[in-house]
Amino acid sequence: MKKLYGYRRPDGQVGVRNHLLVIPASVCASHVASKIADAVNGAVAIPNQQGCCELGPDFDVTHRTLVGFGKNPNVGAVLVIGLGCEGISTSDVAKEIAESGKRVEFLVIQENEGTINTESKGVRIAREMASDLGRMQKVEIDISEITLALECGGSDTTSGLAANPSLGYVSDKLVDAGGSVILSETTEFIGAEHLLAERAVTPEVADDIIRIVKRIEDKAKSIGVDLRDGQPTPGNIQGGLTTIEEKSLGCIYKGGSRPIQGVKEYGEIVDGKGLYIMDTPGQDIESITGMLAGGATVVIFSTGRGTPTGSPIAPVIKVIGNGDNYLRMKDNIDINAGAIMDGTETVAEVGERLYDEMLEVINGKYTKAESLNHKEFGIYKLSSTF
């Protein structure tokens, strides 16, 4: 087995990147957070568009996601920026992230005489944090300490036939090695949820799988939409997927064949080994954001039509099942699984190539999304703001 190296955090978790993360507690602090991050090499800010005028479950999801991003093992230190009157508490977010043992500081714009002073203080703090992170050394880690997030987007007929099965191969191999894997996108279980429920380790987990699918369908019906009436995504239709059931049957291949250990809410920390499901929307960026808040450190993202999506804190490896679209989107795609469609490679052969690529990325190889500085981020909303 190839030796792997990562960053050991104070709580024992392992990161494959070493980011200084600047978190705006609300949209009102996002500009200042971005200005601070732009001024310090090694810092990255998340473009949080939420955090104010949210109630109930939406408030909880935003708070949980921001804290989860700060606790993610790929993050070495955190600076939280708040306006001062938003719903999300800047100090509470910072306090909860600090439970991980990493350095966390916070600044409130209204308590620091405006944005210019806050930016100045923030840059000084961030520069010191970045210097400390720059001295941190990698240590040898084990593959069992990796948590992998699985995603698909811009799908076509080759996704379920080539790209997603190769992800499933990697998922099974990582689970067998003692690692953790997260399968998401609840809307893309519709019509195939019974197949996932059959793989649940307990009847309670099976019930949870059925429950989250019913919940997302009921939510759509509450605004007058029946998701089973057809395929709602124009790009998928153009790619040859005419029903949501077709898409779902291809989507769940990403999760391989191993037992499903549990179901997590959006952004909830995955604290066990094996394959887990997270209740996320099918929207790619919001789905990835939820899994990273849940502790994923590497993302493998399958596609058929091609997509450039990346992340502020984790490497996103792109796999495409359509060889023609690989040539069109070569700047953005890491692995071409089109050879499966051509019959020149098997799923297992592509799966091995993809697994080896994941190991290289864990050890520091930049994905194409990283090289192009893609940092997409979005929090799932359950209702409107008030």
Describe the structure.
The chain has two domains: 117 residues, Rossmann fold, CATH 3.40.50; 228 residues. It has 14 helices and 14 strands. The protein is 39% helix and 17% strand. A seven-stranded parallel beta sheet has the order 10-11-9-8-12-13-14, with helices on both faces. It has a four-stranded parallel beta sheet with strand order 4-3-5-6, with helices on both faces. It has a three-stranded antiparallel beta sheet with strand order 2-1-7, with no helix packed on it. With 386 residues, the chain is α/β, with parallel strands linked by helices. The longest helix is centred in the N-terminal third of the chain and has 20 residues. 55% of the residues are buried.
Percent range for helical residues? 25-40%
| Unreliable runs | none
| Number of domain units | 2
User: What is Rg?
Assistant: 20 Å
Total beta-strand segments? 14
Estimate the strand proportion: 15-25%
- The biggest beta sheet, please? 7 strands, parallel
How much is the average pLDDT?
94
State the end-to-end distance.
53 Å
Number of helices: 14
Q: In a nutshell, what does this entry contain?
A:
The protein has 14 helices and 14 strands. It is α/β, with parallel strands linked by helices.
Provide keyphrases for this structure.
14 helices; alpha/beta; 2 domains; 4-stranded parallel β-sheet; 39% helix; Rossmann fold; 7-stranded parallel β-sheet; 386 residues
Layout: helices, strands, pairs:
Layout: E1 4-8, E2 14-15, E3 19-24, H1 30-38, E4 43-45, H2 56-71, E5 75-82, H3 90-98, E6 103-108, H4 115-134, E7 139-141, E8 147-152, H5 157-176, E9 180-183, H6 193-197, H7 203-221, H8 234-238, H9 244-251, E10 260-264, E11 274-278, H10 284-293, E12 298-303, E13 316-320, H11 323-328, E14 335-336, H12 338-342, H13 347-362, H14 368-371
Parallel strand pairs: 3-4, 3-5, 5-6, 8-9, 8-12, 9-11, 10-11, 12-13, 13-14
Antiparallel strand pairs: 1-2, 1-7
